[in-house]
Sequence to fold (237 residues):
Amino acid sequence: MPIQVTCPGCLKRFSVSEKFAGQEGPCPKCKALITIPKPEEEVVIHAPAHSEAGAVSAGGISTLKTSRKKDAKFRPIVFAVVLGVVLVVVLLAVLLRGAVLESWLVPIIATVLLGPPCAWAGYTFLRDAELEPYRGVELWIRVTVCGLVFALLWGVYLFIGEQLFADKVFQTKLEELETYQMFIVVAIVLGLGTFAGYVAFDLEPISAFFNFALFFTITILLRLVVDLPALPGLPGG
Fold:
């Protein structure tokens, strides 16, 4: 098999018989003395596979293209677990609705229980498909912390509402809010929830927003189930 040779002086390309491999000889054009490479020393340039240009390894695999992970955003087990947790929490909320408990205790327990599963579910189908997903212990730590922050934001909602709009003289509880006041408080909480999802899971801002919105919506529906207003500050809150 002929050996392809390029003269380092004049850059002329030519081929010689493989029997001259490792020997020296003059370039046919500029007469400069060059060493004929051995077959195993030849540089092989692979043609790009599927019309995609780029460097390839000896096996013809692109070395410049970022390898994509297996994408399995919809995971039935995640859906089943989260749905099961939601149903259990709703059932407990209904059963405890008539029990001798403070009215604020049921929503607190429910939001704490729902936070991590909702954060996990949201991350599963909103994560960036180009990034390697979090797994194992690291995933559960991030899910737990993010979920508890989600739950804590209901307390932030009440705190901000009372600090900004409750009666400052008598320190009364959060009363009915005007529309613009409700919008301000909700916007602040949604912003904080979006930031929590962004930090915990490296989500895009819009994805982080929907991650928290999933939890926020489910807990609002839960409040309605236990005969509470959708949001504190609405009529009846």
About this structure: The beta strands are 3-6, 13-16, 24-26, 33-35.
